[in-house]
Every structure is written in C-alpha cells, then in structure tokens.
Amino acid sequence: MDTLTSPTPAPRPGPQTADAPAPIDISASRGPACTLCQRPALVHWLRRPTNEDVEAVRLLEIDRRAAQEQLDNPDAPTPVYPPLPTGADTTVIVHACGPHAIDMEAAAHIHASTCTAPNEADLPGCDCTPEKLPTEPPEETAPLPAHWTSGGQ
Length: 153
Ligand SMILES: [Zn+2]
Ligand SMILES: [Zn+2]
Hints:
The protein is an alpha+beta fold. The protein has 2 helices and 3 strands; from the N terminus they run βαβαβ. One zinc ion is lined by residues 111-112, 115, 117, 126, 128, 130.
C-alpha cells in the first residue's frame, strides 16, 4: 500500500483578516534597471547618498522604530537606538546595463554623492574621485579545536 505523503507542508492556519496581502509588484520582480536607459541592469556599484537619499533613509528608520514601539510592550523600558544613519555610513546602489557600465576598477570603489555615473560623457569613467578602499587588516584565524580538524581526535 502506498502511504506517501505530500512533501509540501500544509498551509499554516492563521487568522483570516479583511486586509488582503499587498499585491505583488510585477515590475519590481524584473530586477533593477539601468539608471541611465532603464534597460535591465547587469552591473552595479555604490555611491554615497545625496542629502535627499539620507533623508529618505532616516525617515524610513524613524518609521521602523515607531512601528516597533507600537508592537513593544508599553511597560517595557524605552529601547535605546543607535544613532540614525548618516551619509558617512550609508551607500546607494547605482545600477547600469552593459553599455553604460563604468570600468570594473572604478566600480569596486564607493563614489561621491555627486557622481553622475553612468553618464555617457564620462564613460567608462565617471566625474568623481571615488573613495579609496579601506585596507583590510590581515585576517588572523584562531586555530580550530583538534576535534574539528580532519584526523583530530
Ligand atoms: Zn543603460
Ligand atoms: Zn564616480
């Protein structure tokens, strides 16, 4: 007798609310588009945010914290949040298609907030001086315990 059960888990029973789930945005599922020509992006790099970008990120974070406080137990102590993000610790992703990609070396760096790349006048370069990459300290790995190495006991 075949008693195979379906590998798919049963749908989770949950309270059905009148709120329908947000419809899936089909345009977003196509992936990012080139900043310049809106064709599907192939590459991306990072730049520092403009003041407007930082403001948008800060507003999002303020909203997120407000929403969290609504969920939190009102008797719990007020959470202490880290400072709001600033332009120095935030980056914005710039997408580009193949023809509008800056060169790979430049794309490895973080560009200035004023960088206009991808801009056909400057390709395959850009009009800013990208930040130098941070030099990473050599990685020091602690030795694994003997019983985690092959042949160990
Ligand atoms: Zn393009
Ligand atoms: Zn640049």
